[in-house]
Design brief:
Layout: E1 2-10, H1 21-29, E2 35-38, E3 50-54, E4 57-63, E5 65-67, E6 79-82, H2 95-104, E7 108-111, E8 139-144, H3 147-152, H4 156-164, H5 175-186, E9 192-196, E10 202-206, E11 209-213, H6 216-220, E12 223-229, H7 237-250, E13 253-257, E14 267-271, E15 276-278, E16 282-285, E17 289-305, E18 308-323, E19 327-337, E20 340-347, E21 350-354
Length: 357
């Protein structure tokens, strides 16, 4: 398997971002990412998907969409849509109809920033997901980089500090999001988790002072999705695009907070007497199975089964654990960074199923 790094949920001048596709591509080339997926609000920008190369670096720019009902006030139920060649914003008024239309067209749907805090200081409401009765969605945006700004800021002093030192913002996914994900997984649903930058690169100006708040390059160095694919990117857009969306849809991936330390090289597998499964895979459980975890460096490690930690310890870089129960198994890892324990790696599950005879 090959590991590629994908940064998603980015906005451009076609909605409420400040950068165009060329600028975003140039910023991505300076970061250690392989793929960027742009999701402007209620518009699927056509003709922009391409590879951009410079020296020995190459990045693939793909186009998705963030769809929401613009007539609903206050705003709720934003959805990330990937993998389509058609516009679907006309179905935003009905989240289930939107999901059904995307599924019929072979696309992917992720519930964007499902839990948020309001930020009255800047007249920002919480854009949470409310229609939890929907079915058939691909996954949820477990960790949203820009939304976390709302979580940590409570006064103007904090807002200014985090604007100048944004690397102090990320802590971990909101507990509500983790709990909801585990609830869905324990209920037997396969739900893929992704991290989204939600980048806008906001320009702040006051008299002679100018600053870009949370520039694209910052986001590209922070919350990424590490995808496990069958082969290296070929440079052929149609082939590589399909391979990327297959990995995202299946959950053959993990979330990595790459600023404290690179998460490249993380491994989480399960094996029985016949086969080895990785993230997003199903494994039949007969007499038992063994989970194997390898971290890029020592960290606090937690193994979770159906929402319940079954192992946790600090200063770990590997673990082998025998299991004999079915369910969804996933991994969390934490590092100390800037004086706090912060989320570092959040794996997608391996689904262990009992053999039916």
């Amino acid at each position: 398997m090959e590991e590629i790094v994908c940064n998603l949920h980015n906005h451009t001048i076609y909605s409420d971002g400040t950068g165009d596709y060329t600028h975003i591509a140039q910023e991505a080339l300076k970061a250690d990412v392989d793929v960027v997926i742009i999701t402007d609000h209620n518009v699927r920008v056509k003709g922009m998907e391409r590879y951009v190369e410079e020296n020995d670096r190459r990045v693939l720019i793909l186009t998705g969409e963030e769809v929401h009902d613009q007539d609903r006030m206050p705003q709720k139920n934003h959805m990330l849509v990937f993998g389509l060649e058609r516009e679907v914003a006309q179905f935003a008024y009905d989240p289930q109809k939107l999901i059904d239309q995307v599924n019929r067209s072979g696309g992917l749907t992720f519930l964007a920033h499902p839990y948020e805090y309001a930020l009255p200081l800047f007249n920002e409401t919480d854009i949470t997901w409310e229609s939890w009765e929907v079915e058939g969605f691909t996954g949820i945006e477990l960790w949203n980089g820009f939304s976390e700004f709302k979580t940590v800021v409570r006064n103007m002093r904090q807002a200014i500090m985090y604007a100048f030192v944004p690397q102090r913002i990320p802590h971990q996914p909101l507990p509500q999001a983790l709990a909801k994900w585990d609830e869905l997984l324990t209920g037997g649903r396969q739900v893929t988790a992704v991290a989204g930058s939600d980048s806008h690169a906001l320009n702040y100006r006051a008299v002679f002072f100018r600053k870009t708040i949370f520039p694209y390059r910052y986001h590209f160095s922070t919350l990424n999705n590490h995808l496990l694919v069958q082969s290296p990117l070929t440079g052929k857009i149609s082939h590589d695009r399909e391979m990327i969306y297959q990995a995202l849809g299946k959950g053959a991936s993990f979330i990595g907070y790459d600023l404290p330390a690179s998460t490249r090289g993380f491994i989480f597998t399960a094996e029985n007497n016949e086969t080895t499964a990785s993230m997003g895979d199903e494994l039949n459980l007969e007499s038992g199975a063994t989970l194997r975890i390898k971290l890029p460096q020592k960290a606090f490690l937690r193994l979770i089964h159906n929402g319940i930690p079954i192992f946790e310890a600090g200063n770990m870089d590997h673990l082998a654990k025998t299991i004999n129960k079915s369910g969804a198994y996933r991994v969390e890892a934490y590092l100390d960074f800037l004086g706090k324990k912060r989320g570092w790696i959040f794996s997608n599950p391996i689904y262990v199923r009992k053999v039916r005879r």
